[in-house]
Design a protein that fits this description.
Elements (H helix, E strand, L loop, with lengths): L3 E4 L2 E4 L4 E7 L9 E6 L6 E6 L6 E3 L7 E6 L4 E6 L8 E8 L15 E4 L3 E6 L1
Parallel strand pairs: 2-11
Antiparallel strand pairs: 1-3, 3-8, 4-5, 4-9, 5-6, 7-8, 9-10, 9-11
Length: about 130
């Protein structure tokens, strides 16, 4: 069984930064792509970022491009989301998820059906 545990959330003023971490259990972390999603009040869950098994390729939602950066350390079984220039509209619960594969072809990285394990989420609140 794979467990994903997010940390690093909190409250920050607009323009600030936070770094989220997601620690994964199991010995096969490096075989799988990983993603970050978020769920804001009154909205549907939305994809945020994605990284392939090796870290060689990343994708971002248009709303966070240029502000967020996803990375991973396979030796530590951990994926990160560096969030800069935060805006009030970034307020949400952020979830990490393990993809079903080492990479997701085409533009399908944003589809939650391509992920099979999810963390419990960490709250990010950005005040204006």
């Amino acid at each position: 069984q794979v467990q994903l545990v997010e940390s690093g959330g909190g409250s920050v003023q607009a323009g600030g930064s936070l770094r989220l971490s997601c620690a994964a259990s199991g010995r096969t972390f490096s075989n799988y792509a990983m993603g970050w999603f978020r769920l804001a009040p009154g909205k549907e869950r939305a994809s945020v970022a994605y990284i392939t098994w090796s870290g060689g390729s990343t994708e971002y939602a248009d709303s966070v491009k240029g502000r967020f950066a996803i990375s991973r350390d396979n030796a530590k079984n951990t994926v990160y989301l560096q969030m800069n220039s935060l805006k009030p509209e970034d307020t949400a619960v952020y979830y990490c998820a393990r993809a079903r594969y080492g990479y997701i072809p085409g533009g399908s990285w944003a589809g939650s059906d391509n992920y099979d394990y999810w963390g419990q989420g960490t709250q990010v609140t950005v005040s204006s």
